[in-house]
Amino acid sequence: MNDVILAAENLTKEFKGFVAVDGVNLRVRRGQIHALIGPNGAGKTTCFNLLTKFLSPTRGTITYGGKDITAMSSADIARLGLVRSFQISAVFPHLTALENVRIALQRRRGDSFDFWRSQKILSRFDEEALSLLAEVGLSEFANTSASELSYGRKRALEIATTLALNPEMLLLDEPMAGMAQADVERITALIQRISANRTILMVEHNLSVVATLSNTITVLARGKVLAEGDYATVSQDPRVVEAYIGAGHG
């Protein structure tokens, strides 16, 4: 069990009699990219919100690094190194890419968001911020305001602000949603790169991205785990094929 970084046991969420997540058991292994997929209405978003503590489970337990985090807040688990991307960031549109990452670095170090601080105090974060922008391929956009970045590059900036918090594990909520193909390819390559020394759990609709990136895939249907394994295994499972076709979702 030492290689399991995030685990859910009998995870259940009921909404006024409707069971959205029904007794899910999940094991995410350290250093892997693990995808949570399923047809529309499968419960994957609810499951993801439970794991990231945006919802509280009706029943079940969640452990991270062997520690029970079931009753902890999303802010508290972020401090443990479990960070949901696109949760923290929602980048500041009128600040530059560099300024956005700098603010995230301030947050990690416990500094308050004193926008009126002297440039000299703030600039001590520049070197690390520029290094993070380089990691996500945004070096040439350091002084571009976030509002002027393309959608895919905004996503890359959001990932940079998340990486500024130095997470051990990254939870990505549909990182490819709404992207043009060129951006999908860029962000897929970025996720591959940043996974080198981190664990990643992602919910993603784009199955070709899932096939490219994932070590392990958990398929949900009607709130339950339907299948689990690598892409070759789950994509050939007749129950998975039936769940997707039956839901009218390719």
TrEMBL record:
Keywords annotated in UniProt: ATP-binding, Nucleotide-binding, Transport
Residue intervals of the ABC transporter domain: 6-247
Protein's organism: Tianweitania aestuarii
Protein name per UniProt: ABC transporter ATP-binding protein
InterPro entries: AAA+_ATPase, ABC_AA/LPS_Transport, ABC_transporter-like_ATP-bd, BCA_ABC_TP_C, P-loop_NTPase
This protein's record includes keyword Nucleotide-binding: yes
MF (Gene Ontology): ATP binding
SMART domains in the record: AAA (SM00382)
